[in-house]
Amino acid sequence: MPRRASSGGMDGQTGAIGNLTEWLTGRNMMIFGAGAVLMLAASRLAPPFAGRAIGTMRAMSGTDPFEALAQDHQKVLALFGRIEQTDNSAVIRRNAMLLQLKRMLTAHALAEEDIVYPMLHDDAQRRDQAKKLYSDHAAVKVKLFELEHKAKDDPTWIDDLRALHRMIAEHAHEEEQSEFPKLRAALDESQCTNLLGEVSREKSMLL
Question: How many CB atoms lie within 10 A of CB 114?
């Protein structure tokens, strides 16, 4: 006649299975957590690498890095024009368009401050001019902060926006007509190709 398993033995088996299940569950959670971290890191790293690759391909196809920066200027100035067409009641629209403007300016400024201006300072020997352009960016950031925190239905808000528009238009004109040509003349073809890749990488971090 077969012997019945003691309750103590059954409890031991149950406990062992439970411990194994907990261990597997914990292991799976660790694997899942590690995978999530890797995916997050990849999502952060992929845009800059992709941006640099796209920039390099554009440069190889004949795209000029300074022309690309000038196109950024035109897009920003065009957005200013659209915002200036709104009236004081368009509070939500002004907020959304100002956020878009800030994002475009921030990405463009990051590329110039981290890549273009240091090259202008060192390669083109335009030290004072580079410092002046950095200073212009600082003034723009202050004006953007003021516009963000001012009521969008304030009658003076649009005047402040127009003042920033003029400031950026003058800054862009100085870059395109004076500083970019001098930096272009100081770089060889390989450096220009690398410059577009670096600029695209920096912008892709924010756009």
Answer: 14
Q: How far apart are CA 109 and CA 169, in angstroms?
A: 14
**Structural element, H or E, at residue 131:** helix 127-149
**How many structural domains are present in the chain?**
1
pLDDT at 100: 97
List pLDDT tens digits, range 58-91.
444 447 999 999 999 999 999 999 999 999 999 9
Give the integer Cα–Cα distance in Å for 149 and 157.
10
Give the model confidence (pLDDT) of 150-166 as tens digits: 999 999 999 999 999 99
In this prediction, residue 63 carries a pLDDT of: 77
Q: Could you list the residue range(s) of the whole structural domain that residue 163 is in?
A: 38-204
Q: Quick check: is 152 in a domain?
A: yes
Both tokens assigned to 34: 């590690």
Return d(Cα 137, Cα 105) in angstroms, integer: 9
pTM: 0.71
Mind listing the pLDDT tens digit for each residue in 111-156? Answer: 999 999 999 999 999 999 999 999 999 999 999 999 999 999 999 9
**3 belongs to a structural domain:** no
Structural contact between residues 120 and 179, judged by C-beta atoms closer than 8 angstroms: yes
- Closest residue by Cα to residue 61 from 201, 177, 181, 192: 192
AA identity, residue 119: M
As a whole number of angstroms, the distance between CA 136 and CA 13 comes to 74
